[in-house]
Amino acid sequence: MHRSRVYAVIIDTPTAEAARAAEFWSAALGVPARPLPDQPQFTSLRGAVPGLVTAVQAVDDAPGIHIDIESDDPDAETARLVALGAEQVGRWLECRILRVPGGQVVCVLPVESDPELFDAQARTWP
C-alpha cells in the first residue's frame, strides 16, 4: 500500500514571460508573488489555492498548467498512474514526469508537504 495527494498546481510559462505571468497571477488571485531563492524557476503564489502549493514555473516549453502529486512511494504511485493510462515521459531530480490521457502533464514526487497535512489528506492505494 502507498498514499498520495495532490500537492501543487503549477502554471508553466515560457521563461521570457515568467515574470510578467507571475505579476498577472499575483494580481488576479490577490496573493503575493515570491520568487523561491533556492529554486529560481519558481515564483510562489502562496495562498492562491488553500492547502495546495501554487506557483508559476519558468519553462523552456509550451505554456500550460500541471499538477504535482506527492506520494510516500513515488515508484508505486507512478506505476499506478501508468496502469491507468499515463506514460512516463521524463524525470527531473526526484520528480517523475507523466503525460496522461488528454495530453496533460502530471508530476509525481516524494512527500514535500508537512507530514501532518499529508497524513490528513492523502488517499491510501492498494
UniProtKB/TrEMBL annotation:
One Pfam family hit: Glyoxalase_6
Highest taxon listed in the record's lineage: Bacteria
SUPFAM superfamilies for the chain: Glyoxalase/Bleomycin resistance protein/Dihydroxybiphenyl dioxygenase
Membrane-spanning residues: none
Alphabetized Gene3D superfamilies for the sequence: 2,3-Dihydroxybiphenyl 1,2-Dioxygenase, domain 1
Start and end residues of each Glyoxalase-like domain: 9-109
Protein name: VOC family protein
Source organism of this protein record: Pseudonocardia zijingensis
